[in-house]
């Protein structure tokens, strides 16, 4: 069986062999596995992040190759409780809408004139919520500018005013949510679906919504 002193003997032989091949050069022991792993990690940090396959879409899926950051943003956009799709209408879109729904086209023209991205649920009540939507647009533009100015390596969200932005975490009303239009069309519909303390909370939130 190998002796416990065998690794020391092997190192001594390697040192003598190197001294004979390279006179005057000091012998150095080979790096440990931990040192090699650190070298490899440091080298990989300096390399470009490899592209990945990205799948986007729920009803109509398509795949492409891009940066992992693009994949993360794509997945966030698919989460309907985090992000809500909004349309940017063109004048051609509005002219086409007039053929089957003149009232909807009129509301879309309001969004187009104010350069407002909007989803179709909010489009139904755009005349009532237009002041908030315009303020939300200003606040989001300011927030984007503040985030763009952050130095590399800083990922804390800057202190900006998002009081008019909807939906946002912790909001105490239904503005901008999927329940807003339903509650306006059928007051109390959310509370009727719930039981217990949640029913009372939904009723209070709905009453605030209708009061506004």
**Number of helical segments with 4 or more residues:** 10
The helix content is: 40-55%
Please give the order of strands in the largest beta sheet.
1-2
Radius of gyration: 31 Å
Low-pLDDT runs: 1-6
Number of strands: 2
As a percent range, the share of strand residues is under 5%
Distance between the termini: 87 Å
Query: Which structural class do the helices and strands define?
Result: mainly alpha
Inertia-based shape:
extended
Could you tell me the mean pLDDT? 78
Order of helices and strands: HHEEHHHHHHHH
Describe the sheet with the most strands.
2 strands, antiparallel
Provide structural commentary.
It is a single chain. 54% of the residues lie in helices and 5% in strands. With 212 residues, the protein is mainly alpha-helical. Strands 1-2 form a two-stranded antiparallel ribbon. Helix 4 packs antiparallel against helix 5 (102-113). The longest helix is centred in the middle third of the chain and has 23 residues, at 126-148.
């Amino acid at each position: 069986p190998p002796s416990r002193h065998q690794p020391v003997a092997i190192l001594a032989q390697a040192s003598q062999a190197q001294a004979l091949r390279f006179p005057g050069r000091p012998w150095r022991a080979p790096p440990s596995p931990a040192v090699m792993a650190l070298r490899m990690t440091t080298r990989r940090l300096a390399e470009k992040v490899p592209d990945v396959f990205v799948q986007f879409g729920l009803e109509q899926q398509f795949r492409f190759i891009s940066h992992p950051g693009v994949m993360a943003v794509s997945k966030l956009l698919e989460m309907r409780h985090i992000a809500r799709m909004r349309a940017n209408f063109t004048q051609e879109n509005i002219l086409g809408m007039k053929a089957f729904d003149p009232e909807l086209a009129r509301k879309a023209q309001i969004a187009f004139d104010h350069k407002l991205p909007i989803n179709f649920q909010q489009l139904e009540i755009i005349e009532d919520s237009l002041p908030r939507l315009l303020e939300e647009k200003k606040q989001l533009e300011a927030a984007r500018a503040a985030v763009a100015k952050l130095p590399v390596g800083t990922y804390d969200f800057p202190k900006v005013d998002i009081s008019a932005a909807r939906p946002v975490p912790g909001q105490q009303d239904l503005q901008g949510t999927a329940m807003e239009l339903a509650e306006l069309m059928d007051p109390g519909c959310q509370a009727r679906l719930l039981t217990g303390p949640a029913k009372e909370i939904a009723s209070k939130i709905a009453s605030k919504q209708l009061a506004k």
